[in-house]
Amino acid sequence: MKSYKMDGPHRGFCLVINNVKFNQSLSERRGSFKDAEELERVFTWLGLDVRIYTDLTSQKIKELMQTWQQLQDHKDRDCFICCILSHGESGAVYGKDEELVSIRTIMSYFTARQCPQLAEKPKLFFIQACQGKEIQCGVPVKTDARIPDSSSMQQSFSPSESIPEEADFLLGMATIDGYVSFRHIQQGAWYIQALCSKLQLLVPR
Questions:
Q1: Exactly one of 83, 87, 115, 196 is catalytic; which is it?
Q2: Distance, CA of 65 to CA of 161 (rounded, Å)
Q3: Which of 82, 115, 130, 196 is catalytic?
Q4: Beta strand 88-89 with 92-94: parallel, antiparallel or unpaired?
Q5: Considering the chain, what is the average pLDDT of its residues?
Q6: pLDDT tens for residues 5-16?
Q7: Burial of 35 from C-beta contacts in 10 A (0-12 / 13-18 / 19+)
Q8: 10 burial via Cβ count (<10 Å: 0-12, 13-18, 19+)
Q9: Residues 174-200 pLDDT 10s
Q10: Residue 163, by phi and psi: left (phi above 0), alpha (psi -120 to 50) or beta?
Q11: pLDDT tens readout for residues 122-175
């Protein structure tokens, strides 16, 4: 299987936007500093340069994305990661001014056309935010899926002269559209804590 080149002089940048306090009706996101600290610890351990931004308005989030989009240093980096911890609604996250910013808009700053220094490099976005008001119910399941034979999954890849503009993105969400996500007021969000713990466990393998 084709894999990304991850042996450059620098691994990459990891942005963490941690919106905790909001201007009006949205509640304080207690426990979110625990998530930001854990993200900083794990991604620093993985070799990334972590930058944390706290309580940004919707406009400041867009301006920050534009600043990082234009950074020439990306050409010497292997990847780019952006983690956003905030309140949210369907397909969007709140700035501290309680105005929404579309997740798709945030990601669009780093397409191959908008940020050519990151073309063909992995761009990972992890979003800890509600995407609605509904609560998912648990359903008991049994597995009966056959694990595919690894040899049948291998494909041959040939170099191409062009790539899709939005190639090489991964979007990880704490919940699905229309539903809430959960956060412990002392231990942090279930999604972020699990993400960090699994990265630490599985990346060395």
A1: 87
A2: 28
A3: 130
A4: antiparallel
A5: 89
A6: 888 889 999 999
A7: buried
A8: middle
A9: 998 988 888 888 889 999 999 999 999
A10: beta
A11: 999 999 999 988 887 777 766 565 544 544 444 444 445 667 878 899 999 999
Q: Delimit the domains of the chain by residue range.
A: 10-134+161-202
pLDDT value at 95 more than 60: yes
Q: Give me 185's structure tokens.
A: 């007021």
- Catalytic residue flag (residue 79): no
What's the CATH number of domain 10-134+161-202, 3.40.50.1460, 1.20.1250.20, 2.40.30.110, 3.40.50.200? 3.40.50.1460
Q: Could you please report the per-residue DSSP string of the chain?
A: -------SSEEEEEEEEE----SSSSPP-TTHHHHHHHHHHHHHHTT-EEEEEES--HHHHHHHHHHHHT-GGGGGEEEEEEEEES-EETTEEE-TTS-EEEHHHHHHTTSTTT-GGGTTS-EEEEEES--EEE-PPP------PPPPPHHHH-------S---TT-SEEEEESS-TEE---EETTTEEHHHHHHHHHHHHHTT-
pLDDT band at 92, cuts 50/70/90? very high
User: What gap in Å lies between CA 205 and CA 201, rounded to an integer?
Assistant: 8
184 among known catalytic residues = no
Of 44, 30, 60, 27, the C-alpha closest to 189 is: 30
